[in-house]
């Protein structure tokens, strides 16, 4: 049987979103990028001038804000349309200010509790490719396939830098690398659900590989799981 729940975890800009979306398309599954939820909470907190260091207020926001992930409603390169309380925040959640504040927000236990519960409910519906940092370890430990996608910090910074330039935003490669290392450190060392490879996850290093090569390798992993399931 084709594996029903596929979890992809890994650090920032390792290519998880591109890979997750491609696998979901090939299998006809729902693609769900959980980073979006942490980004929405951060983006709305900044917009409402809620201090990021106010754990109680940020947690209350995570419990209340209504996050919708819809098929793309505009032809501007978006994979999905993201709504926060009905407002389109698809591009706002990619702003540098959100990048700079999302790691502390995602380290709050109450924020994680609120968002993980929603993710788990969606994931258990099956036929899903869920992408994040703690999907295989915490959100859906029963996932049928777990991939830990990695790439060197330099390669990931270069990808993020090129993405920014493509969107017409100013960018400096060294700053991007420094910010990425900082975010990696917080994501991997936080007390609750830190970024780490699940014991039963397949490690996939995308450094030096093309997107097509990474997708092909991941589909081999999915097909191998299918065989070991007895089909
Ligand atoms: O994948 P991303 O860059 O959009 O994720 C944004 C932030 O959210 C990142 O700093 C880590 C956090 N995150 C998390 O803690 N757990 C997840 N399942 C997904 C993202």
CATH superfamily: P-loop containing nucleotide triphosphate hydrolases
Distance between the termini: 6 Å
Number of helices: 9
What is the H-and-E element order?
EHEHHEEEHHEHEHHEH
CATH architecture: 3-Layer(aba) Sandwich
Class by alpha and beta content: alpha/beta
- Mean of all residue-level pLDDT scores: 93
The largest beta-sheet arranges its strands as 2-6-1-7-8
User: What's the helical proportion of residues?
Assistant: 40-55%
The CATH topology corresponds to Rossmann fold
Shape: globular
Residue runs with pLDDT of under 50 for 5 or more positions: none
Beta-strand segment tally: 8
Major sheet size, sense and barrel closure: 5 strands, parallel
Task: Please report the first level of CATH classification, the CATH class.
Answer: Alpha Beta
- Portion in strands: 5-15%
């Amino acid at each position: 049987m084709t594996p029903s729940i596929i979890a992809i975890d890994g650090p920032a800009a390792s290519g998880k979103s591109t890979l997750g979306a491609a696998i979901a398309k090939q299998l006809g599954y729902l693609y769900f990028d959980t980073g979006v939820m942490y980004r929405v909470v951060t983006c709305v907190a900044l917009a409402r001038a809620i201090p990021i260091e106010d754990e109680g207020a940020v947690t209350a926001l995570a419990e209340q804000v209504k996050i919708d992930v819809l098929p793309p409603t505009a032809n501007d390169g978006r994979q999905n349309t993201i709504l926060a309380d009905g407002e389109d925040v698809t591009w706002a959640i990619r702003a540098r200010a959100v990048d700079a504040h999302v790691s502390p927000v995602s380290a709050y236990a109450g924020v994680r509790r609120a968002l993980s519960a929603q993710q788990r409910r969606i994931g258990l519906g099956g036929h899903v490719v869920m992408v994040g940092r703690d999907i295989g370890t915490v959100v859906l430990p029963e996932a049928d396939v777990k991939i830990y996608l990695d790439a060197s910090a330099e390669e990931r910074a270069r990808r993020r830098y090129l993405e920014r330039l493509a969107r017409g935003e100013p960018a400096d490669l060294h700053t991007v690398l420094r910010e990425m290392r900082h975010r990696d450190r917080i994501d991997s060392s936080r007390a609750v659900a830190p970024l780490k490879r699940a014991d039963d996850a397949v490690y996939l290093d995308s450094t030096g590989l093309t997107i097509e090569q990474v997708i092909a390798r991941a589909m081999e992993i999915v097909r191998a799981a299918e065989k070991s399931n007895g089909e």
